[in-house]
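anyone seen this seq b4? input:
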Amino acid sequence: MILDKIENAHLYQGISKGIDTALTYIKSTNFSELPVGKHEIEDDAVFAIFKAYQTKEIADQLMESHLKYIDVQYVVEGVEHMGVTTRTHQEPKITYNEEDDYMLFEEAYDIITVKEGMFAIFFPDDIHMPEITIGNSSDVKKVVIKVKIQNS
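predicted toks r here
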């Protein structure tokens, strides 16, 4: 997992072509003009999902992990908390859904805070629970860029 401010994106240049594309997209996109929904960047190799939502209570939420795609999550407006842990040999509570590329876990986790202007990169071994709140719910606008692993 990587957690940082977008102005430090240059530090991660060269990790993979797909991550470079995702970070460039974040830095060059005017999100105030982008409609909510899915946006193609490089066919199914790199695409963005722009979301607007209220953060959720942590109770009864499950953690997720992916096998085909890396998540690059950038908070455009607002602040949210995310649960994170490393996937080792845990068994998913809900088995892998190949079509939608996720499996769900019920695991112990640490909490990170992702504020406006920050991004988190989650690799397949990063089990994560985004969109959560501690305290009062808040409005968030976020882009999740999916980077296909074999094209990374």
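The two ends are 15 Å apart (CA to CA). The mean pLDDT is 95. kinda curious what u guys think
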